[in-house]
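Summary for the steering committee. One of the milestones for this cycle was to obtain a three-dimensional model of the protein with adenosine-5'-diphosphate bound, which we needed before selecting residues for the alanine scan. The sequence and ligand used are listed below.
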Amino acid sequence: MSTVREVHSLDASDIGRQWEREMAVRVMTAYVAHELNHPLGTIINLTNILARRLADPVVRAKDISHHIQNIKAEAIRATSVIRNMRMLTEHKPPSHESLNLIDVCHDTIARMRPIARAKQIRIRFEIRTALVRVRGVKELLETALYNLVINSIAALEDENTASRLVTVRILARDPTYTAIQVLDNGIGIPGSIRDKVFEPFVTTRPDGSGLGLAIAGDIIRLHHGRVIHQRRRTGTCMEMMLPQE
Ligand SMILES: Nc1ncnc2c1ncn2[C@@H]1O[C@H](COP(=O)(O)OP(=O)(O)O)[C@@H](O)[C@H]1O
Ligand SMILES: [Mg+2]
């Protein structure tokens, strides 16, 4: 009863604001959980590899230290997730750092290669423009790219195509915008969700959260850019356009 009375004492705009706040908290919590899963999953994989290497008869110090460095880098990434996600949900403009998109792509691909290799998927990187500088937050742009590439990997997993390939391509769209494209020859985006893939919680995967593209979209908008997707003969092309520096 008391809840009913409480609700009646609120006017429509209060309820609207309360609902918005609740949605914001729900989306924020889901974002943080979604983004923490990447570094934590990688840390678990790397510690498993490390444990196996340490059990080998010959332990190579260089190899071990390489894995430890990667574990540390992922742990640092995890600590920055909450700060970065807050920037998104509170629409705080990113601290404008001058970035080279080649570094953004290169570093993300390096992190994802082991995941792709485990599924017999190749990642190819193509640079088709010299206009590669933008302003933004490197970690956030890497997160956006990671979310696109991981979707391409998932789209290729159940495909019986002879060559499973994800291409990351940098190209100039016009004299003001540079794009990062992620192309795959996977299953393609199902027609039923084609116009709403960037909305939160839209997914066709049994274990999906429907947040990867929503987060990527928010990140690119925060950088004054745009994300679109196009159907390919086989597969999908996702494209993030960013204003050049
Ligand atoms: N490269 C792709 N190929 C095919 N389908 C895709 C691709 N990227 C996204 N999708 C579709 O869009 C949906 C939403 O993607 P996303 O927001 O990353 O959430 P999730 O991966 O958790 O399902 C996916 O469930 C899938 O149906
Ligand atoms: Mg996803």
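Key point for the committee: The pocket of magnesium ion (ligand 2) is lined by residues 147, 150-151, 212 (CB under 6 Å).
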